[in-house]
Structures are given as structure tokens and as C-alpha cells.
């Protein structure tokens, strides 16, 4: 997602080319994901929607939001990061609504799976959520940027989350973050967090 140039670009790692291929242009993109069928999912923070594209397609199909900016179950407000599971359900960090939404494949509205109780630092709340990760059990991990923590929400128990790391105020300590932005896991279960305003990536062993 080449956001500053309002486009999505593909670069081949094999061909030796030094120039990328523009797949989608005139889009205020933020998050990208790809499913197992090689459909591309892109969040648009200007249109407050997520679209699914076949490679080579320019217009795409709305799969989340697209009903204007708002906090209804069929709306998004600055959708950022995406995860798509094997059933093509879309998880999206709905940044300005301080929640994470799950849109089942073909659904007309989403389900709140984390936050959605207003901006705050209680375990029922999020503050400008960014990066998300969903494991094979459906457990959701959220980079809770404004609360400087990573919080975990277990499937089937949507009322409150559990702090995994951080949550010790903004700072530079090993157990602190300053605006965590993105996160990911490796196959050994280590958690990696892009600690944006500390200009570092942290690794944690999660039990």
C-alpha cells in the first residue's frame, strides 16, 4: 500500500525488475491482506470501507463498510489493519470507533469482536486500535495504540480482553510501548510488535 501516492503496487521478487506494477490507483489505502484464493483485500480510510479485488481488477467488491463514515454495525470510521481468515471472514481495526469488527463473508453488517465501548483503557475498551492478528483458534490480538499495550480477546468471550504485554503507561522500558502500531507472530509463537514512536521492534515470548 503506497499510501502517499494513493495506490497499491506489486513488486516481483523473482523477475529482477526494478519497477513495480500498479494494481489499484486513486485509493487512500491503509491495510492490505490476501486470502488463500489470492483475493486482495484493501482498507480505504477515505471511503471508510474494505474492498476485495481479484488480481488485475480495478474496482473491487465492498466486503466491509461502504455505508459512509459512522459507528453503525454496517459502517466503519477510518478502517486500518486487516486480517482475512480461511473462511474469507474479514477482521478490521475500526480505528476511530475504537473497536475491532468482524464481517462474515457476504454479511451486510459486522460484529464487534473487541472494544466498541467508547475510547478508554478499561479491559472492555480500546483506544485507536491498529495492528491485529487472529490465530487458528480465533483468538484476536490487538495493538491498542492509545493505551500502549497489546490486548488479547478470546473467541466466544467478547466482554473484555486480557493485556498480553504493555499497559504500563507510555515509555521506553522493555515492558512498555510508545504507540504500538503493527504486530505479528512467527511459527514458534513469538510476538513481534512495531513500537512506532520508540523506533523499534520488540519480540516477546507468549505463553
From TrEMBL:
The organism's place on the tree of life at top rank: Eukaryota
SUPFAM superfamilies, alphabetized: YWTD domain (SSF63825)
NHL repeats: 70-106, 125-156, 171-207
GO CC entries: extracellular region
PROSITE patterns assigned: NHL (PS51125)
Record key words, sorted: Glycoprotein, Repeat, Signal
Keyword Signal attributed: yes
Name recorded for this polypeptide: NHL repeat-containing protein
Amino acid at each position: 500500500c503506497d499510501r502517499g501516492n494513493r495506490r497499491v503496487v506489486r513488486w516481483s521478487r523473482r523477475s529482477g525488475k526494478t519497477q513495480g506494477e500498479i494494481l489499484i490507483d486513486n485509493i487512500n489505502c491503509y491495510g492490505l491482506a490476501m486470502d488463500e484464493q489470492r483475493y486482495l483485500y484493501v482498507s480505504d480510510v477515505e471511503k471508510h470501507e474494505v474492498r476485495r479485488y481479484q488480481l488485475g481488477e480495478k474496482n473491487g467488491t465492498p466486503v466491509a463498510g461502504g455505508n459512509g463514515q459512522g459507528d453503525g454495525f454496517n459502517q466503519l470510521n477510518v478502517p486500518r489493519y486487516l486480517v482475512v481468515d480461511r473462511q474469507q471472514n474479514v477482521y478490521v481495526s475500526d480505528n476511530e470507533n475504537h473497536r475491532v469488527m468482524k464481517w462474515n463473508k457476504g454479511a451486510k453488517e459486522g460484529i464487534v469482536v473487541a472494544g466498541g465501548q467508547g475510547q478508554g483503557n478499561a479491559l472492555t475498551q480500546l483506544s485507536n486500535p491498529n495492528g491485529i492478528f487472529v490465530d487458528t483458534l480465533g483468538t484476536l490480538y490487538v495493538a491498542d495504540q492509545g493505551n500502549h499495550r497489546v490486548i488479547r480477546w478470546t473467541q466466544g468471550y467478547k466482554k473484555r480482553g486480557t493485556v498480553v504485554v504493555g499497559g504500563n503507561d507510555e515509555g521506553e522500558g522493555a515492558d512498555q510501548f510508545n504507540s504500538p502500531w503493527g504486530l505479528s507472530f512467527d511459527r514458534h509463537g513469538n510476538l513481534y510488535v512495531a513500537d512506532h514512536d520508540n523506533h523499534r521492534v520488540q519480540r516477546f515470548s507468549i505463553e
